[in-house]
Design goal:
Glucose Permease (Domain IIA); about 45% strand; mainly beta; 10-stranded antiparallel sheet
């Protein structure tokens, strides 16, 4: 399963929502005097035997941040894009009283890579009365105007043979729009993952470490790399091992370049690499058919 899009809520008139807390590690170590310390990075002067890494529960990172600023008798609502590629956002009222949007909500906007967009202006319907509101913001990766080209992709694994455990339309987890045209390649943990096509690293998640079959718990918690292609389509390489992403957001990669290490994270039955090519079809992340060298596709 691929990562889910996210909803963000802002309460009140002028409170901006921050990003979801990204995962991290905490280190515990004992110094030469026997004192215990904690920090977000291991000390340079401690021996490895005295340092213990403590896992911290994580949530998927935000792809968009909601920012509300006061204006001249109005509030300006911005969406800030955290990704190195375009996203589309949908702004709506979760609750409102005596407030109207310009344009009327719900309103959509396309936000450029690591950029911002003014989505709406909020004003009181009756200036003589108090107003209040709550906003919801949903973000989906990709530009809805993208027009993908017919391209032959390379095998995304550095191994001589690739066994497909689940193909297009697989009944276990390839039944929704995001995953219908996806391939699950059998791959041992630590297998080298290659870029099947050149592009820009748009999004990376690498802090998750667990896997399971409870979708409500593990869905959306797979490590992955999302690569944006020049035609606006996006390839996703999912279920990477913890810290298995070997590229950074914004990095340009070439076809066949090593980008990560396969693993077993998120909603999965076992170690494998989930690969799909996706486009945004108007606030809907959709997987599309693709051709891959040396692999015969069957519905």
């Amino acid at each position: 399963m691929t990562p889910r899009s996210h909803w963000w809520i802002v309460a009140g008139l002028a409170v901006a929502l921050s990003a979801a807390h990204a995962g991290d590690k905490v280190y515990r170590w004992v110094d030469k005097d026997g004192r215990v310390h904690y920090g977000d990075r291991p000390p340079a002067n401690a021996t490895p035997m005295k340092v213990r890494e403590i896992p911290v529960p994580v949530e998927p990172s935000a792809i968009a941040r909601l920012r509300v600023e006061p204006g001249n008798g109005e509030y300006l609502v911005h969406a800030d894009n955290t990704l190195a590629g375009p996203i589309e956002v949908l702004l709506g009222f979760a609750r409102s009283s005596n407030v109207r949007g310009d344009p009327p909500l719900p309103a959509r906007a396309t936000v450029p890579a690591r950029g911002s967009a003014l989505v709406a202006r909020l004003r009181a319907q009756d200036p003589g009365r108090t107003g209040n509101f709550e906003l919801s913001l949903r973000g989906v990766p990709g530009d809805p105007s993208a027009r993908p080209q017919d391209v032959e992709y390379l095998l995304p694994l550095r191994q001589s043979h690739a066994r497909i455990d689940q193909g297009f339309g697989g009944r276990f987890s390839h039944t929704d729009e995001q995953n219908r045209h996806a391939l699950d390649f059998a791959a041992d943990i630590g297998t080298t993952v290659l870029a099947a096509r050149a592009g820009t690293v748009m999004q990376v998640e690498s802090d998750f470490s667990k896997a399971g079959l409870k979708q409500e718990r593990y869905g959306g918690r797979a490590n992955f790399v999302r690569i944006l292609h020049d035609d606006g389509s996006m390839a996703i390489y999912a279920h990477l091992k913890a810290d298995g992403a070997l590229v950074r957001v914004g990095q340009r990669v070439t076809s066949g370049q090593q980008i990560g290490l396969s693993g077993n994270t998120g909603f999965t039955t076992g170690p494998h690499l989930h690969f799909a090519v996706q486009v945004n079809r108007g606030m809907r992340l959709v997987s599309i058919p693709f051709r891959m060298r040396g692999v015969r596709m069957t519905p």
